[in-house]
Amino acid sequence: MSKPTIILATSNGVGMGHLARASAVALALKDVANPIIVSMAGGIAELPSYMGIRCEYIPGRDRGWMSREKWDKYLRDRLLALVEETGATVLSFDGVVPYPGVIAAKNSNSNLALVWVRRGLWQKKPQRFVLGLQSRMMDKIIEPGDIAREYDHGPTAIRKDAVLTSPVSLFQPTHAMLREDAKKALGLDPHRPAVLVQLGTGDSDVNEKMSAALSGLLGWKDLQVILTKAPTDKNGKSLAPDGLDIKVLRYFPLANVLHAFDAGVCATGYNGVHELLPAGLPTVFVSNIRGTDDQEARAQWCHDKGFALRADQSDLSDITAKVRELQDSATRERLSKKCAELPAANGGTEIAKILLELATKSRANKPGTFTYTRLIVQEHINRGLRHVANLGLRRVALVYRFLNPHIVVEVTKQEPPQFGSQTSTIELRELIKGSVRFEHLIEGASEKYKKRRKEIAHEAYGELVEIKKK
Q1: Per the domain annotation, does 173 fall within a domain?
Q2: How far apart are CA 229 and CA 199, in angstroms?
Q3: What is the predicted pLDDT for the residue at 13?
Q4: What is the DSSP-derived secondary structure letter of residue 255?
Q5: Is 200 left (phi over 0), alpha (psi -120 to 50) or beta?
Q6: Which of 177, 243, 399, 416 is such that its CA lies 20 to 30 A from the CA of 80?
Q7: CB atoms inside a 10 Å sphere around CB 290
């Protein structure tokens, strides 16, 4: 009997949380099914060469290459084409809100089972208003466990429509390298301490948190500070204080080399918490309050239960002070010892089992057209709610633009989309970040699939022009 094909789709969230969970599930499925990962997140570039699993990047609506309405249809058609190409029977979506294109794909194929991998610990954002409608569109809802679930008071906490699993983590003791091997893999000095810092950069407040955290590491003798992204602002100015030995390294999955580090400073996202703590890494968590994820609740639980230190994300001096505490070996030993009490994070295997069982069922549920229509209408309403606060500013901008119109100096056709089935991390990273529209194809794509993909791209992009303005 041939292995069933299961598509694991993820949204373009902040960080690698969605992709890390999908990767853990895909690895668990590898021996019993044909998992395929599709994602709007640029981090998908890290996956194919490491995992040996077919992947496809789908440009998100944030790229601005087409209107929102066109993107919804583009996503639907991309998913349906991939289902037809691979014979997939299950589509799993890991994201806060299933895009209309995802639900439309389900609504267009009655044989396709749709699963929503819905993380808990939501903040009370507008997305909560469509939870009921979205849930009714699903064949199954899975909530990956969260060690801080006790502190979940968000809109998903009171719902009874999801199957709860253990936490999902790419860190598995059986795959993690020993300290010496991990340091060698990262090119670190084996005789010097090392700290992993994963806070991100971008807006001014995020940059300030990075600087405050790095300042807390000053004075740690012979320290190597490892970041996954250069600590610079948008103008290229360094956010790091003088006196630190900083190295910027990329390694996937970091979960396998976490034993190389003596401590960590990390945002309190699902991925960071469920990798660093199971690895026993003494950590200071500095929450990112943007998005739907209630990182503050997760950080508070970790602090209250003694598994990690929580820095007040709104107080730069507290961030520096909490990070400085990591320099104390007794503090690090206490935190690491406490982390050993955490239960195994086997959620990836549990989710894989659920998806496999669904893939071998005879038929998926067919959602009612009325439910689907209501959901799309509500999605449009919520989109309006999210932007209503900006209406006044937009109107002012429109009046200004009417009085001061752009001057068109050149009109040129955009370059045609570039198609390719690259698997190299370096190649994929450049293509995904590039300005040329990139249409990624799974390895071994048929000629029929390539033809259909070109039709989809043409419908989405049309004969767009680039207008250069003063």
Answers
A1: no
A2: 9
A3: 65
A4: G
A5: left
A6: 416
A7: 13
Q: Are 103 and 193 in the same domain?
A: no
Residue 469 pLDDT grade (very low, low, confident, very high; cuts 50, 70, 90): very low
- Phi and psi at 292, nearest 5°, equal -90, -25
Single-letter amino acid, residue 47 = L
Q: Are residues 103 and 233 in the same domain?
A: no
Q: What does pLDDT average to over the chain? A: 87
State residue 125's pLDDT score: 75
Question: Is 15 in the same domain as 141?
Answer: yes
Instruction: DSSP letter for 354, please.
Output: H
* Whether residue 129 is found in the same domain as residue 262: no
Report the DSSP beta bridge partners of residue 196: 226, 264
Instruction: Supply the range of the domain harboring residue 263.
Output: 179-343
Residue 102 shares a structural domain with residue 198: no
| d(C-alpha 352, C-alpha 325), whole Å | 39
> Are residue 316 and residue 190 in the same domain, yes or no?
yes
Residue 112 domain-assigned (yes or no)? yes
- Torsion sign over Cα 23, 26, 30, 36: negative
Residue 360 near residue 179, CB atoms below 8 Å:
no
Half-sphere exposure of 19 (CA within 13 A, CB side): 22
| Last-in-domain residue among 302, 325, 343 | 343
**244 in a domain, yes or no?**
yes
In this structure, the strands spanning 194-198 and 224-227 are parallel
Distance CA 277, CA 259 (A): 11
Cα–Cα distances in Å, from 141 out to 25, 118, 134, 165, 262? 15, 7, 10, 11, 38
Given a cut of 60, whether residue 386 has pLDDT beyond it is no
φ/ψ of 79, rounded to 5, equals: -70, -45
pTM of the model: 0.87
Q: Which residues have a Cβ under 8 Å from the Cβ of 270 and sit 6 or more positions away?
A: 17, 21, 119, 121, 144, 146, 293, 298
375, 130 contact by CB (below 8 A): yes
Residue range 120-139: mean pLDDT, rounded:
82
- Tell me, yes or no, whether 287 and 428 share the same domain: no
Pairing between β-strand 465-469 and β-strand 408-413 as defined by DSSP bridges: antiparallel
Beta strands 113-117; 90-94: pairing state = parallel
- Do 126 and 239 share a domain, yes or no? no
* Residues facing residue 142 across a β-bridge: 117, 163
CA distances from residue 262 to 209, 250, 440, 450 in whole angstroms, order as listed: 21, 18, 39, 48
